[in-house]
From TrEMBL:
Cell compartment(s), UniProt: Cell membrane
Membrane topology: Single-pass membrane protein
Protein's organism: Aequitasia blattaphilus
Keywords: Cell membrane, Membrane, Protein transport, Translocation, Transmembrane, Transmembrane helix, Transport
Family: Belongs to the YajC family.
Membrane spanning residue stretches: 6-22
Protein name in the entry: Preprotein translocase subunit YajC
Family annotation (PANTHER family): SEC TRANSLOCON ACCESSORY COMPLEX SUBUNIT YAJC
Coiled-coil positions: none
Lineage: Bacteria, Bacillati, Bacillota, Clostridia, Lachnospirales
Amino acid sequence: MNSALLIVIYAVIIGGFWFIFMRPQRKEQKRVQSMLSEMAVGDTVLTTSGFYGVIIDMTDEDVVVEFGSNKNCRIPMKKEAISQVEKPGQE
């Protein structure tokens, strides 16, 4: 087998792995980053631990989320702990 052909085969295999594994991951990272940048006070969020709440305050890296109808349950957390955002009135 020619060594040039072997190099081409390896390049095709590595390119295939990149296309199958890395590209979708980068696409998902861009989607999450876009979602986190568009968050606003009053949005309903789903945390990575499975709790639904409403954003009541935000900083650059942190959010304060209010859970349930009890107004005393307010928890500060990192923005990365939010997995889904729903705007008010959006059904």
